[in-house]
Amino acid sequence: MAFLLIFGNVKDSQAEEFTISIPFGAFNPELNTPAEVWYDPPILSIQLGDTVTWINDDREGHTVTSGEGSGRFEWMNTKELGEADGIFDSQRFMPNESWAYTFDKAGVFNYFCIIHPWMSGVVTVNQTIPDYPHDAYGNRIESFPVIQFTPDKLIEFDLTWEPNIIKTFEKTTFVFQTYDGITNSNLDKMMYDMIITQNGKEVFQDSGITQVGGDYRNVIFENSGPIEIRFQNIVSSGSSGIDSIARESVNQPLFRTVVFSTIVYDNPEKITTTETMIQPAQRLDIYYELLVAIILVPALMLLGLIIYMKFRKSENYSQEKSTPL
Questions:
Q1: Eight-state DSSP code of residue 129
Q2: How far apart (Å, rounded) are the C-alpha atoms in residues 87 and 109?
Q3: Using alpha carbons only, what angle is made at residue 99 by residues 95 and 100, rounded to the nearest 5 degrees?
Q4: Largest Cα–Cα distance of the chain, in whole Å?
Q5: Each residue of 107-125: pLDDT tens digit?
Q6: CA 121 to CA 112: how far, in whole Å?
Q7: What DSSP element (H or E) covers 233?
């Protein structure tokens, strides 16, 4: 959970800061108020991760509260107070004071003053999808696979995902392999639990056993935001043709864990999908079994043919010897 909380505090190194003034006279809803707008500028467009600071240049206290205000004429006619939606709320701050908020979600955010509900403004937060992948801390991922080691350094876990930049409502394929952390030999028959969490919620969970060529899962994300891809309980499932110290018994298999992270972006081209949210697990051992069958069956047929030909040859030779001249 702490890992996800850190995500929320990560700030893009390219993020900008913007200022909105609450001008003098905003406290007065009458048409002859000196203020031409209640928040200046009243409409602001920013990028995801940017910070907006509101400065109170008026003579009374105000709030910056997300939701729908009443509007000037509605308040004058009905005394409607507006309705907050709970996304952000500055609480009351006095003249010459300020309040700042960093927008970590894309969308259109209406806001108003709880004390003076005719005051309203809009912040539009746009999401820029980078042309390279990065982890949830903002570090650029230079190459794939991404490599992590278990805490005991005995197992190397390699993870690749395609496409590298993950978007909502598009299928993402996670491909992973396990190696001996000392000899770098490919480890098969290693059990694991795969768990993906996003915004504090588990969105995917599955278990499996690695094969020599690795394993993979298909996932479709409905929501944007940072994700944590965790593999835990990585232990040997039994004997294998590949010996390794990593196959020895583990007292606390939960600590045989590796964690990866990246970001899921809102897809500007899709708002839904006809595919299943979580694709059924498709393991590479099916293909290995098929490959073995393709190789083994003809080999057995050839061996049978050779034995049959030798038997026929021996039988013909015996018949020739037994035939009288």
A1: P
A2: 9
A3: 155
A4: 135
A5: 889 999 999 988 888 998 8
A6: 6
A7: strand 225-236
Q: For residues 186 and 178, what is the distance between their CA atoms, to the nearest angstrom?
A: 6
Q: Which tokens hold the place of 128?
A: 């820029």
The CATH classification of domain 2-126, taken from the options 3.30.70.1290, 3.30.9.10, 2.60.40.420, 2.60.120.290: 2.60.40.420
* Type of residue numbered 71: G
Of 93-97, 207-211, 267-271, the poorest mean pLDDT is in 267-271
H helix runs in the chain, sequence order: 2-9, 72-78, 285-322
3-state secondary structure of 223: coil
Strands 146-149 and 65-68: unpaired
- Nearest residue to 47 via CA among 139, 128, 109, 167: 128
- Nearest-angstrom CA–CA distance, 45 and 81: 26
pLDDT digits (tens, 9 = 90+) for 37-94: 789 998 898 888 899 999 999 999 999 999 988 776 565 556 677 889 999 999 999 9
Q: CA-to-CA distance for 148 and 73, rounded, in angstroms? A: 60
Q: Is 197 in contact with 1 (CB distance < 8 Å)?
A: no
Tokens for 284, please give them. 């590479």
Cα(51)–Cα(199) distance, integer angstroms: 21
User: How long a stretch of residues is the chain?
Assistant: 325
Domain coordinates in residue numbering, the chain: 2-126, 146-287
Structure tokens at 254: 């939960």
Residue 259, both tokens: 């964690």
288 Cα distance to chain centroid: 29
What b/e sequence results for 304-325 when a residue is b if at least 16 CB atoms lie within 10 Å of its CB, and e otherwise?
Answer: eeeeeeeeeeeeeeeeeeeeee
2-126 and 146-287: same fold?
Answer: yes
Q: How far is CA 172 from CA 17, 114, 266, 286, in A?
A: 33, 43, 14, 20
Give the phi and the psi of residue 176 in degrees, each rounded to 5.
-140, 155
Report the CATH architecture of 146-287: Sandwich (2.60)
> pTM surpassing 0.85?
no
